[in-house]
Design a protein that fits this description.
Blueprint lengths: L3 E9 L5 E10 L4 E5 L6 H9 L5 E9 L2 E2 L5 H7 L1 E4 L6 E5 H16 L9 H14 L4 H4 L2 E2 L5 H15 L3 E5 L7 H14 L5 E5 L13 E6 L2 E6 L1 H10 L10
Parallel strand pairs: 3-10, 3-11, 6-9, 9-10
Antiparallel strand pairs: 1-2, 1-4, 4-5, 7-8, 11-12
The structure holds adenosine-5'-triphosphate and magnesium ion.
Length: 255
Amino acid sequence: MALLELKNLHVALEDGTPIVKGVDLRIDANEVHAIMGPNGSGKSTLAHALMGHPAYQITGGQILLDGEDVTELAANERAQRGIFLAFQYPHAIPGVTVTSFLRSALNAVRKAKNGGVDNPIPIPEFRKELLAQMERLEVSREMAQRYLNDGFSGGEKKRIEILQMAMLKPRIAVLDETDSGLDIDALRIVAGGVQQLVGPEMGALVITHYQRILNYITPDFVHVFVDGRIVEEGGAELAHKLEAEGYAAFLPQPA
Ligand SMILES: Nc1ncnc2c1ncn2[C@@H]1O[C@H](COP(=O)(O)OP(=O)(O)OP(=O)(O)O)[C@@H](O)[C@H]1O
Ligand SMILES: [Mg+2]
């Protein structure tokens, strides 16, 4: 049984415009899949639909997580089951510190795993884990005390997304252009942090425009995404080919 399976998934915008037009994808634990494709092809729409964002309607097909059909579940229910999305454009939550946000998110998942009964992580244990992950991802203590993403630089937001992932330890991590905006050192740290978590407990779907992040998170499969569909699949070498040649070969030819 696959960890995450998409069967002929179709996604439309709220006004009914079809964006994702039949995607079949199977991701197992211990696997990294990369999706690369032109701007506006529907990659973030696919990611939002996976997470259960209410602005994106699943109009056909299925999403299975560990064999369970989660297509109709709300975003929080999917998160509790282990789907995680690192956003391309993370939102700020003024008034909520990074630390308290992470503790709430973690406790919500623990509660769901405990049959709906509160089972908060003891504060010393939380602090120890948080400090360890912050050190690994080189997030300063000062940042953890600030309001979530409020005034954070682009790269700081991406780091905090991955800190969130490291704390929640999802089954499947979807990273939507986590590499964009990261400086060279941050890319290595963040991508290394993701690679360390990929294993028997977690698979990853990495949406990116650039081959470079794939030097740190080695993809088992690369999918080319054009106009709402996967049009080509290959191994890590396909990312190099795309970087060299672009998407011309996959775009409709002018008449
Ligand atoms: N909430 C929305 N409201 C209106 N249009 C939307 C919305 N979300 C997506 N779209 C449209 O759907 C199409 C696909 O957008 P999407 O963000 O999924 O592309 P993408 O492949 O992630 O592009 P990029 O590489 O630039 O991030 C675009 O034409 C976009 O304008
Ligand atoms: Mg996008």
